[in-house]
Structure to design on (123 residues):
């Protein structure tokens, strides 16, 4: 008879533990879902802020070509992501992985690797 009581007692403890583990897991999942929602809201806010800060470049000239001046390239492309002065009269503007090379303030060549340069071949 005592064995039956111990068996029932043990079964009740196991059922109770399983329910408490399940409740703990449910609470953990609920907490993760709340954090996920908060992070999604924060991400949307950051995206909205970044989009509002982006201003389209108003180009007076839609493209540049070999022989264009530095000013014309800036009008067509906007500010470069980086630039380097490679010699006293030479420099290069970098747009992504594309590059525009200047000598004496004139475009002498370019590498349009990113396909993002507004460039045309002069006729």
């Amino acid at each position: 008879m005592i064995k039956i009581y111990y068996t029932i007692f043990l079964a009740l403890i196991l059922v109770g533990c399983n329910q408490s583990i399940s409740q703990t897991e449910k609470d953990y999942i609920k907490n993760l879902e709340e954090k996920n929602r908060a992070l999604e809201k924060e991400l949307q806010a950051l995206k909205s802020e970044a989009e509002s800060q982006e201003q389209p470049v108003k180009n007076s000239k839609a493209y540049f070509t070999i022989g264009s001046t530095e000013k014309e390239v800036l009008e067509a492309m906007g500010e470069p992501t980086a630039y380097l002065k490679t010699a006293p009269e030479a420099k290069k503007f970098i747009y992504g992985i594309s590059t525009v090379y200047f000598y004496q303030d004139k475009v002498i060549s370019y590498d349009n690797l990113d396909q993002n340069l507004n460039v045309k071949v002069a006729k």
